[in-house]
Amino acid sequence: IALARTAYLPKADAIAGVNRATRNNTFGLLLPSQIIAPISGPALGANSASNVWGSTAGFLISWEPFDLGQRRASIAVAEAGKHKADLAIDRTRFELAHLAADTYLTLVAAEQTVAAATAGYLRAETNARIVNAVVKADLRPGVDATRATAEESLALAMLIQAEQARDLARAALTQLTGQRNGTSDTDKLLAGPPKTIYEQTNLADHPRSREQQAAIDEIKARQNLLDKPLLPK
Predict the structure, then answer these.
(1) Distance from first CA to last CA of the chain, Å, rounded?
(2) Are 60 and 13 in contact (CB under 8 A)?
(3) What per-residue confidence (pLDDT) applies to 195?
(4) Computed from CA positions of residues 151, 155, 160, 161, in that sequence, does the dihedral angle turn out positive or negative?
(5) C-alpha dihedral (170, 175, 178, 179), degrees to nearest 10
(6) Confidence band, pLDDT 50/70/90 cuts, at residue 161
(7) Rounded to an integer, what distance in angstroms lies between the CA atom of residue 152 and that of residue 145?
(8) Cα dist. 215→3, 23, 93, 232 in Å?
(9) Which contiguous run of DSSP H or E holds residue 108?
(10) Residue 4 phi/psi, 5° resolution?
(11) How would you classify the pairing of strands 51-62 and 11-22?
(12) Is pLDDT at 45 greater than 90 in this prediction?
């Protein structure tokens, strides 16, 4: 935006030169050319090998007070781009907040899975202890002890997997929030969703919708800028 606003400032150009040449000139009309340099000075009636020093200096200040909105259109394009970038930041923050909330809920569910797996392992461990005691007393066949031990091992494996999933969810939440604390009060989450009927949300206020609308506004600003060069200066 600051760069676009510099178009309102006046421009100043300076030039200076020093040369040494003979007094001879080209007679007749010398048209402008990119190959033959223009020669100034009076035409002389005789050739001369003598030379003379010469110097030139110039200073030009130009300012365009009226441009029929061309510079303003350039500033509008820059402002539209900045507005789009700001909304992109808002959309990114919204997505990160959404991801953090989703990860938090995943951690809550993983902790409940660990609690259930812990209870299942304790039940399998207690059952295996009882079955082994009964088998040792020759009241039940040995295959029951083997089955109870297998169930205990399976419950332990499920508990380990649940704890691994919980630790991964906690690590992901730590990366998003920068906090190493675990879940706090989850009673409201475990109690179920509220029964309140929410009103329909206006999708135009969604961060992604606002960013896309800003992109449309930027394109319209560029179209307006492209129409300005057709105006006279």
Answers:
(1) 23
(2) yes
(3) 63
(4) positive
(5) 0
(6) very high
(7) 10
(8) 21, 65, 18, 29
(9) helix 70-136
(10) -65, -35
(11) antiparallel
(12) no
Mention every residue, 6+ apart, whose C-beta is less than 8 A from residue 212.
none
Residues in the chain: 233
d(CA 71, CA 44): 50
Query: What's the CA gap between 122 and 110, in Å, rounded?
Result: 18
Asked whether 214 and 81 are in contact (CB, 8 A), the reply is: no
Provide, for the chain, the percentages of residues in helix, strand and coil under a 3-state DSSP scheme, each rounded to the nearest 5: 60, 10, 30
pLDDT at 85: 95
Of residues 3 and 31, more confidence is placed in 3
Is there a contact between 212 and 83 (Cβ–Cβ < 8 Å)? no
Structural contact between residues 70 and 228, judged by C-beta atoms closer than 8 angstroms: yes
**Cβ-based neighbours of 107, under 8 Å, separated by 6 or more:** 166, 169, 170, 173, 182, 183
In contact, 182 and 170? CB cutoff 8 Å: yes
Q: Is 190 helix (H, G, I), strand (E, B) or coil?
A: helix
Nearest to residue 121, comparing CAs of 169, 161, 167? 161
